[in-house]
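The authors assume throughout that readers already know how a fold can be written as discrete tokens. For illustration, here is how one protein appears when written out as sequence plus structure tokens:
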Amino acid sequence: MDTANEPEQFPFNPPTQLTRREFLVMLAGAVSLAALPLSACKGSNGETNLPLGSPTVSPPAIISSGVLRVGVATDNIPFAGKAENEEGKSVIIGLDVDIAAALADQLGLRLNLVDTLGRDITSMFVNSEIDLFFGYQQEDQSHSPYVLIGPYLNDGPAIFTMGLSLPQNGFNLDSLNGQMIAVRAGSLSAHVLETRYGSDSIVAFPTLAEAFDAVESGLISYVASDAVVGAYQSRKYRDFICLGFLEEQPQSVFLCVKPGNQEMTEASNQALREIRNNGTLKVIVNKWLGPSTANLVLGAAGSNSAGQNPGDFGEDIPDPSNSDSLVE
């Protein structure tokens, strides 16, 4: 992924976490919000201290009564990372954190974040340190040691440019033939571009920020990056849009449950389906990535002229693909 060699903390002011009141304001008149209470505050460990609804799961399906312990890796910006709050304390924030909070709300639980950086996820499940893990990406899903819920997003190399709206006739990858495209040196996007268009199409920069700067300055028309990372980076600038994925099959992003925990598997699957259907998931992704990328990673853009299919986000989120797998 293009997150390699990114700073350990958010490189510029990230969005603050959505409170439940903000969910109400942003979604009012558009979706049913009966499951979303009216106020929220978050401690330094990411725990939400709220009046709870009726918890839909309890021990032994979760580790602690009334609490959902979610693992996120804080080197995976903007999915999760560290930033300082107004009191100067280090807190975990990010796209996955907001989604985890919404999922916990849907389950009637308080959220407690656990940093998995440098840890073995399988051991954390076995040792009852986490109930869920967010941000799992693997090409061969059948060999996952976990039960996979989702996908809740799609990611992978994508193309960005300056503009106010997507082309009326859609984006065609063939239009990039003969174009110079900025990338971060050594990134997956650089490899995909070289394979598809040849090395002469690539202008490599030491950092992704420098690649975006080159497009903003008008020196180059396009920049390629993982869709999620690039969309977050583009927030520093005005009028950047994501045109589409560079591969026909982008990589799916899942949340994980410990194998054998059928109650948590079913509850998580249903909660994810609910926050997608009531619009909460799209609000969160819009906040972090902007509408052009949100539509792409959530699959709302559909197939484009290059035959890309961002993923299956129909009425039912797919059931876990490996519910019979075991942790050894």
Summary: The two ends are 28 Å apart (CA to CA).
